[in-house]
Design a protein that fits this description.
mainly alpha, Hypothetical protein af1432, 2 domains, 16 helices, about 0% strand, flat
Protein backbone atom coordinates (compact mmCIF):
# COMPACT_ATOMS: atom_id res chain seq x y z
CA UNK A 1 0.00 0.00 0.00
CA UNK A 2 1.51 3.36 -1.04
CA UNK A 3 1.11 6.68 0.81
CA UNK A 4 -1.91 7.77 -1.22
CA UNK A 5 -3.71 4.49 -0.68
CA UNK A 6 -2.99 4.69 3.03
CA UNK A 7 -4.42 8.21 3.12
CA UNK A 8 -7.55 7.01 1.30
CA UNK A 9 -7.91 4.26 3.91
CA UNK A 10 -7.64 6.83 6.72
CA UNK A 11 -10.38 8.93 5.08
CA UNK A 12 -12.63 5.90 4.92
CA UNK A 13 -12.21 5.21 8.64
CA UNK A 14 -12.20 8.74 10.04
CA UNK A 15 -14.50 10.88 7.88
CA UNK A 16 -18.26 11.28 8.11
CA UNK A 17 -20.48 8.99 6.08
CA UNK A 18 -21.54 12.16 4.22
CA UNK A 19 -17.97 13.08 3.20
CA UNK A 20 -16.66 12.84 -0.35
CA UNK A 21 -13.97 10.16 -0.23
CA UNK A 22 -11.00 10.62 -2.52
CA UNK A 23 -11.13 7.00 -3.67
CA UNK A 24 -14.77 7.48 -4.77
CA UNK A 25 -14.10 10.55 -6.91
CA UNK A 26 -15.78 10.55 -10.30
CA UNK A 27 -12.33 11.24 -11.68
CA UNK A 28 -10.92 13.46 -14.38
CA UNK A 29 -12.06 14.06 -17.96
CA UNK A 30 -8.67 12.85 -19.17
CA UNK A 31 -7.39 9.76 -17.39
CA UNK A 32 -4.09 10.00 -15.52
CA UNK A 33 -1.97 7.69 -13.45
CA UNK A 34 -2.76 8.33 -9.74
CA UNK A 35 -0.06 10.02 -7.67
CA UNK A 36 1.63 7.57 -5.26
CA UNK A 37 1.70 10.23 -2.51
CA UNK A 38 -1.25 12.61 -2.96
CA UNK A 39 -4.96 11.90 -3.23
CA UNK A 40 -6.82 13.23 -6.26
CA UNK A 41 -8.08 16.26 -4.30
CA UNK A 42 -4.65 17.07 -2.86
CA UNK A 43 -3.25 16.97 -6.37
CA UNK A 44 -6.00 19.34 -7.60
CA UNK A 45 -5.22 21.76 -4.77
CA UNK A 46 -1.55 21.81 -5.74
CA UNK A 47 -2.33 22.40 -9.41
CA UNK A 48 -4.48 25.40 -8.52
CA UNK A 49 -1.90 26.94 -6.17
CA UNK A 50 0.83 26.61 -8.79
CA UNK A 51 -1.28 28.13 -11.58
CA UNK A 52 -0.63 31.55 -13.09
CA UNK A 53 -4.27 32.58 -12.62
CA UNK A 54 -3.93 31.98 -8.86
CA UNK A 55 -0.86 34.23 -8.66
CA UNK A 56 -2.64 36.99 -10.56
CA UNK A 57 -5.33 37.23 -7.87
CA UNK A 58 -2.95 39.30 -5.73
CA UNK A 59 -3.36 42.22 -8.14
CA UNK A 60 -7.13 41.99 -8.66
CA UNK A 61 -9.66 44.15 -6.85
CA UNK A 62 -11.89 42.64 -4.19
CA UNK A 63 -14.22 45.64 -3.66
CA UNK A 64 -12.26 48.88 -3.45
CA UNK A 65 -10.38 49.94 -6.59
CA UNK A 66 -6.82 51.17 -6.01
CA UNK A 67 -7.07 51.99 -2.30
CA UNK A 68 -4.07 53.64 -0.68
CA UNK A 69 -2.94 51.31 2.07
CA UNK A 70 -1.45 47.87 2.53
CA UNK A 71 -4.26 46.22 4.47
CA UNK A 72 -7.22 46.27 2.09
CA UNK A 73 -8.30 42.90 0.72
CA UNK A 74 -7.42 41.76 -2.76
CA UNK A 75 -8.98 38.85 -4.59
CA UNK A 76 -6.10 36.68 -3.34
CA UNK A 77 -6.49 37.54 0.35
CA UNK A 78 -10.24 37.04 -0.01
CA UNK A 79 -9.56 33.58 -1.44
CA UNK A 80 -7.29 32.70 1.47
CA UNK A 81 -9.86 33.87 4.02
CA UNK A 82 -12.59 31.82 2.33
CA UNK A 83 -10.26 28.81 2.31
CA UNK A 84 -9.50 29.01 6.02
CA UNK A 85 -13.15 29.43 7.01
CA UNK A 86 -14.13 26.53 4.75
CA UNK A 87 -11.39 24.27 6.12
CA UNK A 88 -12.46 24.99 9.69
CA UNK A 89 -16.07 24.04 8.96
CA UNK A 90 -15.09 21.00 6.88
CA UNK A 91 -12.77 19.65 9.55
CA UNK A 92 -15.36 20.17 12.30
CA UNK A 93 -17.97 18.26 10.28
CA UNK A 94 -15.50 15.45 9.46
CA UNK A 95 -15.82 16.15 5.74
CA UNK A 96 -13.03 16.05 3.17
CA UNK A 97 -10.80 19.01 3.99
CA UNK A 98 -8.60 18.51 0.91
CA UNK A 99 -11.58 18.73 -1.43
CA UNK A 100 -12.92 21.77 0.43
CA UNK A 101 -9.54 23.50 0.23
CA UNK A 102 -9.13 22.84 -3.49
CA UNK A 103 -12.57 24.25 -4.31
CA UNK A 104 -12.02 27.31 -2.14
CA UNK A 105 -8.61 28.08 -3.63
CA UNK A 106 -10.01 27.83 -7.17
CA UNK A 107 -13.39 29.47 -6.74
CA UNK A 108 -12.45 32.96 -7.99
CA UNK A 109 -9.78 32.17 -10.60
CA UNK A 110 -12.04 33.57 -13.33
CA UNK A 111 -12.68 36.92 -11.69
CA UNK A 112 -12.06 40.00 -13.80
CA UNK A 113 -9.89 43.02 -13.03
CA UNK A 114 -11.70 45.66 -10.96
CA UNK A 115 -13.89 43.16 -9.11
CA UNK A 116 -17.61 42.89 -9.80
CA UNK A 117 -17.47 46.16 -11.78
CA UNK A 118 -15.34 44.31 -14.31
CA UNK A 119 -17.63 41.30 -14.27
CA UNK A 120 -20.65 43.51 -14.92
CA UNK A 121 -18.83 45.25 -17.78
CA UNK A 122 -17.95 42.01 -19.60
CA UNK A 123 -21.43 40.65 -18.97
CA UNK A 124 -22.90 43.71 -20.70
CA UNK A 125 -20.42 43.68 -23.58
CA UNK A 126 -20.25 40.00 -24.47
CA UNK A 127 -23.21 38.68 -26.43
CA UNK A 128 -23.03 35.36 -24.53
CA UNK A 129 -22.85 37.06 -21.12
CA UNK A 130 -20.18 36.65 -18.47
CA UNK A 131 -20.27 35.17 -14.95
CA UNK A 132 -17.11 34.82 -12.90
CA UNK A 133 -17.98 31.34 -11.59
CA UNK A 134 -18.40 30.03 -15.15
CA UNK A 135 -15.16 31.74 -16.14
CA UNK A 136 -13.37 30.16 -13.17
CA UNK A 137 -14.37 26.74 -14.51
CA UNK A 138 -13.22 27.76 -17.99
CA UNK A 139 -9.84 28.78 -16.55
CA UNK A 140 -9.20 25.38 -14.97
CA UNK A 141 -10.76 23.41 -17.85
CA UNK A 142 -9.20 25.21 -20.79
CA UNK A 143 -7.10 28.33 -20.28
CA UNK A 144 -4.46 27.23 -17.77
CA UNK A 145 -1.51 25.27 -19.18
CA UNK A 146 -2.90 25.58 -22.70
CA UNK A 147 -5.47 22.86 -22.22
CA UNK A 148 -6.58 23.04 -18.62
CA UNK A 149 -5.58 21.55 -15.29
CA UNK A 150 -7.71 18.41 -15.78
CA UNK A 151 -9.19 18.66 -12.29
CA UNK A 152 -11.52 16.14 -10.71
CA UNK A 153 -15.29 16.33 -11.23
CA UNK A 154 -15.90 17.28 -7.58
CA UNK A 155 -13.53 20.25 -7.58
CA UNK A 156 -14.88 21.49 -10.91
CA UNK A 157 -18.46 21.19 -9.65
CA UNK A 158 -17.58 23.17 -6.50
CA UNK A 159 -15.88 25.94 -8.47
CA UNK A 160 -18.85 26.30 -10.83
CA UNK A 161 -21.48 26.23 -8.09
CA UNK A 162 -19.82 28.39 -5.42
CA UNK A 163 -22.21 31.17 -6.47
CA UNK A 164 -25.33 31.54 -8.58
CA UNK A 165 -28.35 29.27 -8.73
CA UNK A 166 -26.54 25.97 -9.27
CA UNK A 167 -26.74 23.33 -6.55
CA UNK A 168 -23.37 21.87 -5.48
CA UNK A 169 -23.10 18.09 -5.68
CA UNK A 170 -21.02 17.71 -2.49
CA UNK A 171 -21.22 19.01 1.07
CA UNK A 172 -17.66 20.26 0.70
CA UNK A 173 -18.77 22.52 -2.16
CA UNK A 174 -21.76 23.70 -0.13
CA UNK A 175 -19.32 24.71 2.63
CA UNK A 176 -17.33 26.86 0.20
CA UNK A 177 -20.54 28.52 -0.99
CA UNK A 178 -21.36 29.51 2.60
CA UNK A 179 -17.76 30.39 3.49
CA UNK A 180 -17.52 32.79 0.56
CA UNK A 181 -20.46 34.73 1.96
CA UNK A 182 -19.15 34.66 5.52
CA UNK A 183 -15.76 35.94 4.37
CA UNK A 184 -16.79 38.77 2.08
CA UNK A 185 -19.54 40.16 4.31
CA UNK A 186 -17.14 40.46 7.23
CA UNK A 187 -13.98 41.57 5.49
CA UNK A 188 -15.86 44.11 3.36
CA UNK A 189 -17.19 45.70 6.55
CA UNK A 190 -13.63 45.75 7.89
CA UNK A 191 -12.31 47.41 4.72
CA UNK A 192 -15.20 49.89 4.61
CA UNK A 193 -14.49 50.93 8.21
CA UNK A 194 -10.77 51.25 7.46
CA UNK A 195 -11.53 53.42 4.44
CA UNK A 196 -14.01 55.55 6.39
CA UNK A 197 -16.79 54.58 4.01
CA UNK A 198 -18.65 53.39 7.12
CA UNK A 199 -18.46 54.29 10.80
CA UNK A 200 -19.04 51.76 13.57
CA UNK A 201 -22.30 53.50 14.50
CA UNK A 202 -23.60 53.03 10.93
CA UNK A 203 -23.72 49.24 11.31
CA UNK A 204 -27.21 47.87 12.03
CA UNK A 205 -27.38 47.46 15.82
CA UNK A 206 -30.09 44.77 15.85
CA UNK A 207 -28.04 42.59 13.52
CA UNK A 208 -24.85 43.10 15.52
CA UNK A 209 -26.68 42.14 18.70
CA UNK A 210 -27.23 38.73 17.10
CA UNK A 211 -23.96 38.22 15.23
CA UNK A 212 -21.48 40.14 17.36
CA UNK A 213 -19.93 43.57 17.65
CA UNK A 214 -16.48 42.76 16.22
CA UNK A 215 -15.11 41.22 13.03
CA UNK A 216 -13.75 38.08 14.71
CA UNK A 217 -16.82 37.53 16.89
CA UNK A 218 -19.16 37.72 13.88
CA UNK A 219 -17.10 35.20 11.91
CA UNK A 220 -16.96 32.89 14.92
CA UNK A 221 -20.74 33.18 15.41
CA UNK A 222 -21.44 32.27 11.79
CA UNK A 223 -18.97 29.36 11.70
CA UNK A 224 -20.20 27.85 14.96
CA UNK A 225 -23.80 28.18 13.81
CA UNK A 226 -23.06 26.34 10.55
CA UNK A 227 -21.21 23.57 12.39
CA UNK A 228 -23.80 23.13 15.15
CA UNK A 229 -26.66 23.17 12.66
CA UNK A 230 -25.02 20.74 10.23
CA UNK A 231 -23.13 18.18 12.28
CA UNK A 232 -24.28 14.63 11.59
CA UNK A 233 -26.59 15.77 8.77
CA UNK A 234 -26.54 15.45 5.02
CA UNK A 235 -26.72 19.21 4.50
CA UNK A 236 -24.73 22.31 5.40
CA UNK A 237 -26.61 25.44 6.45
CA UNK A 238 -27.07 28.17 9.04
CA UNK A 239 -29.98 28.31 11.42
CA UNK A 240 -32.85 30.53 10.33
CA UNK A 241 -31.96 33.19 12.92
CA UNK A 242 -28.29 33.54 11.91
CA UNK A 243 -29.05 33.22 8.21
CA UNK A 244 -31.58 36.05 8.45
CA UNK A 245 -29.15 38.28 10.35
CA UNK A 246 -26.37 37.49 7.85
CA UNK A 247 -28.62 38.43 4.93
CA UNK A 248 -29.58 41.66 6.69
CA UNK A 249 -25.90 42.55 6.99
CA UNK A 250 -25.33 41.68 3.34
CA UNK A 251 -28.27 43.86 2.26
CA UNK A 252 -26.87 46.70 4.37
CA UNK A 253 -23.54 46.41 2.52
CA UNK A 254 -25.28 46.54 -0.86
CA UNK A 255 -27.10 49.69 0.15
CA UNK A 256 -24.21 51.51 1.84
CA UNK A 257 -21.06 50.17 0.19
CA UNK A 258 -21.50 48.06 -2.95
CA UNK A 259 -24.00 50.19 -4.86
CA UNK A 260 -23.36 53.82 -4.11
CA UNK A 261 -20.50 54.93 -1.91
CA UNK A 262 -17.43 57.13 -2.19
CA UNK A 263 -15.29 54.00 -2.54
CA UNK A 264 -17.13 53.05 -5.73
CA UNK A 265 -16.76 56.38 -7.54
CA UNK A 266 -13.81 55.12 -9.62
CA UNK A 267 -15.79 52.20 -11.05
CA UNK A 268 -17.00 54.12 -14.11
CA UNK A 269 -13.39 54.80 -15.07
CA UNK A 270 -12.47 51.15 -14.55
CA UNK A 271 -15.44 50.00 -16.62
CA UNK A 272 -14.47 52.41 -19.40
CA UNK A 273 -10.97 50.93 -19.48
CA UNK A 274 -12.36 47.44 -20.07
CA UNK A 275 -14.91 48.64 -22.63
CA UNK A 276 -12.20 50.44 -24.62
CA UNK A 277 -9.85 47.47 -24.44
CA UNK A 278 -12.59 45.13 -25.63
CA UNK A 279 -13.45 47.33 -28.63
CA UNK A 280 -9.78 47.75 -29.52
CA UNK A 281 -9.03 44.02 -29.55
CA UNK A 282 -12.31 43.26 -31.31
CA UNK A 283 -11.15 45.49 -34.17
CA UNK A 284 -7.46 44.53 -33.91
CA UNK A 285 -7.27 40.82 -33.16
CA UNK A 286 -3.69 40.68 -34.47
CA UNK A 287 -2.66 42.65 -31.39
CA UNK A 288 -3.77 39.85 -29.07
CA UNK A 289 -0.94 37.82 -27.49
CA UNK A 290 0.04 34.84 -29.64
CA UNK A 291 -1.38 32.26 -27.20
CA UNK A 292 -4.82 33.88 -27.58
CA UNK A 293 -4.56 34.42 -31.33
CA UNK A 294 -3.87 30.70 -31.66
CA UNK A 295 -7.23 29.95 -30.01
CA UNK A 296 -9.09 31.99 -32.66
CA UNK A 297 -8.81 29.01 -35.00
CA UNK A 298 -11.20 27.04 -32.79
CA UNK A 299 -13.27 29.59 -30.86
CA UNK A 300 -15.40 32.68 -31.25
CA UNK A 301 -13.52 36.00 -31.35
CA UNK A 302 -15.65 37.51 -28.57
CA UNK A 303 -14.99 34.54 -26.32
CA UNK A 304 -11.21 34.80 -26.72
CA UNK A 305 -11.15 38.56 -26.12
CA UNK A 306 -13.23 38.09 -22.96
CA UNK A 307 -10.80 35.39 -21.81
CA UNK A 308 -7.87 37.73 -22.33
CA UNK A 309 -9.43 40.72 -20.56
CA UNK A 310 -10.87 38.66 -17.70
CA UNK A 311 -7.41 37.26 -17.00
CA UNK A 312 -5.84 40.70 -16.66
CA UNK A 313 -4.88 42.15 -13.30
CA UNK A 314 -5.95 45.71 -12.50
CA UNK A 315 -2.40 46.92 -13.12
CA UNK A 316 -2.05 45.08 -16.43
CA UNK A 317 -5.41 46.43 -17.67
CA UNK A 318 -4.43 50.01 -16.82
CA UNK A 319 -0.99 49.62 -18.39
CA UNK A 320 -2.51 48.10 -21.54
CA UNK A 321 -4.97 50.99 -21.77
CA UNK A 322 -2.16 53.54 -21.42
CA UNK A 323 -0.01 51.77 -23.99
CA UNK A 324 -2.84 51.66 -26.55
CA UNK A 325 -4.65 54.94 -25.98
CA UNK A 326 -2.32 57.40 -24.23
CA UNK A 327 0.33 59.13 -26.41
CA UNK A 328 3.94 58.62 -25.39
CA UNK A 329 5.86 61.70 -24.31
CA UNK A 330 8.73 62.78 -26.53
CA UNK A 331 11.26 65.55 -26.74
CA UNK A 332 13.48 66.97 -29.45
Amino acid sequence: MNIRENREKIEEVTLSSFASLSKNSRGRERKEEPCPIRTIFQRDRDRIIHSKSFRRLKHKTQVFIRPEGDHYRTRLTHTLEVTQIARTISRALLLNEDLTEAIALGHDLGHTPFGHAGEETLNNICSFGFLHNEQSLRVVDYLERDGGLNLSFEVRDGILNHSGEGKPKTLEAAIVHLSDRIAYINHDIDDALRGKVLKEEDLPKRTLDILGKSHSVRINTMIQDVVNNSIGKNHVSMTEKIDKATNELRNFLFEKVYIDSIAKKEEKKAQNILEQLYQFFYNNVDDLPKEFKKKLEKENKERIICDYIAGMTDIYAMNSFNEIFIPDSWKV
